[in-house]
DNA sequence: CATTTCCGAAACGCACGCGTATCGAAAGGT
DNA sequence: ACCTTTCGATACGCGTGCGTTTCGGAAATG
């Protein structure tokens, strides 16, 4: 009933909301999420950083979690480019892994670090974080792995999920825990070891 | 000067501190660290959980960080048993990885999750956490890897540090981020893939 | 017994963030 | 012109934890 009006324009009578304000709030949320982490993130600080009244934030988001979820969703990384046919599975893996080593990933890692403990106590937040910061990256690796199986460069009985965790796990471990460097050299070493294995050919 | 007296007994005049109180405080700190994380951990709650006055805590530790550091230090895991000669490198790795799958590790993972973001902002805390929760586990894997190299079951040019991160990274990734199961089956799959590699023998 | 220190409990002033309410001005539709 | 809603700013009462102080009693030494 009245679908046309309600769906297309919904005719709000008063002053329309400024879309720039939404962008400022989400950007400030992401900044502070990286600087302070989820627990120390306050709505007050978000409003201050965005140059906006607290009322304006609360009018749009009822609490911290939906705000953070929306901010993360707005963080979507660009779609990965397709892989040319003449690229080997090994090189394609290195290229896909290279996404972890870009400097932009450093801030993403800091955001993730500030979310880890909150995720363990809030399933809604955990789901959103995984969707934005994890699933997308895993999907890129999965495509390369399945392509490798089709090309006969990866054995068909290899568990793709285990292989994905094997490739991504060390990057997360270093970023969040050990602080060891994450660079192209590491990505290359990981891919080589995962593809070749550690055992000598004689014992296989 | 006066070394004998100062070092052995130091003769405090008044009532001696109750060592049981120290243990209660450290135990309560560990509990709350797992339940609430570092940021939400308050000295008030520690004192309450330990059945102790706030004064008693502040008399021993000046702030939250040294308290947490001491609590973690008291968490030291038992020394790993030596590896018999008749165990293959593959089985020894599976056994060493099995340490990650024990139920006790679940609480250690929760403690770690609550510390990750604080570590990124406090180097002293990060160093202590790595010493207690990371280095010890890495050392166990390092021994097995070097033993494997001596036995010719691991190629000598393999980077041991990369291999350690390759084995441990997926466990941390699953515990802290994806929530995927961490069990003996996974440990076996990881060791098999790392030792054998994903590429078919024909392309090596 | 006198002294010293430790212990648990309670209260203190302070700072911060919560979520709400109120204000005058601005920006739209009717 | 009139109405409605948004906007930034400010203030409110409330709760929580901070680090300190005070208190009465307990446990050690000399």
Radius of gyration of chain A: 22 Å
In quaternary terms, these chains amount to homodimer
Task: Provide mean pLDDT of chain A, rounded.
Answer: 92
Can you give the helix content of chain A as a percent range?
over 70%
Shape of chain A: elongated
| H/E series of chain A | HHHHHHHHHH
Structural class of chain A: mainly alpha
Terminal CA distance of chain A reads 69 Å
Which residues of chain A form runs of ≥5 with pLDDT under 50?
Answer: 1-8
Biggest β-sheet of chain A: count, sense, barrel?
A: none
Question: How would you sum up this structure in a few lines?
Answer:
2 copies of one chain form a homodimer. The first copy, chain A, has helices spanning 3-8, 19-40, 43-50, 54-60, 64-73, 89-101, 103-119, 123-150, 160-178, 184-196. Chain A is mainly alpha-helical and 204 residues long.
Describe the protein.
Chain A has ten helices and no strands. The longest helix of chain A has 28 residues. The radius of gyration of chain A is 22 Å and the shape is elongated. Chain B binds a DNA duplex (30 and 30 nucleotides) through α3 and α4.
Key attributes of the depicted protein:
DNA-binding; 10 helices; mainly alpha; disordered N terminus; homodimer; 204 residues
Topology (SSEs and partners):
The structure is a homodimer.
Chain A: H1 3-8, H2 19-40, H3 43-50, H4 54-60, H5 64-73, H6 89-101, H7 103-119, H8 123-150, H9 160-178, H10 184-196
Chain B binds a DNA duplex (30 and 30 nucleotides) through helix 3 and helix 4.
């Amino acid at each position: 009933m009245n679908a046309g009006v309600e769906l297309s324009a919904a005719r709000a009578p008063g002053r329309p909301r400024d879309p720039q304000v939404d962008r400022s709030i989400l950007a400030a949320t992401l900044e502070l999420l990286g600087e302070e982490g989820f627990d120390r993130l306050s709505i007050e600080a978000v409003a201050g950083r965005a140059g906006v009244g607290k009322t304006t934030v609360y009018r749009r988001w009822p609490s911290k979690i939906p705000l953070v979820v929306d901010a993360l969703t707005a963080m979507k990384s660009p779609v990965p480019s397709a892989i040319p046919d003449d690229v080997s599975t090994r090189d394609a893996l290195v290229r896909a892994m290279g996404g972890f080593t870009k400097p932009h990933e450093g801030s993403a890692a800091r955001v993730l670090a500030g979310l880890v403990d909150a995720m363990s106590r809030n399933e809604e937040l955990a789901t959103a974080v995984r969707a934005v910061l994890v699933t997308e990256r895993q999907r890129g690796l999965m495509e390369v792995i399945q392509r490798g199986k089709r090309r006969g460069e990866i054995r068909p009985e290899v568990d793709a999920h285990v292989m994905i965790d094997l490739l991504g796990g060390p990057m997360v471990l270093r970023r969040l825990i050990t602080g060891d460097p994450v660079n192209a050299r590491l990505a290359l070493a990981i891919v080589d070891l995962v593809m070749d294995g550690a055992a000598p050919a004689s014992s296989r």
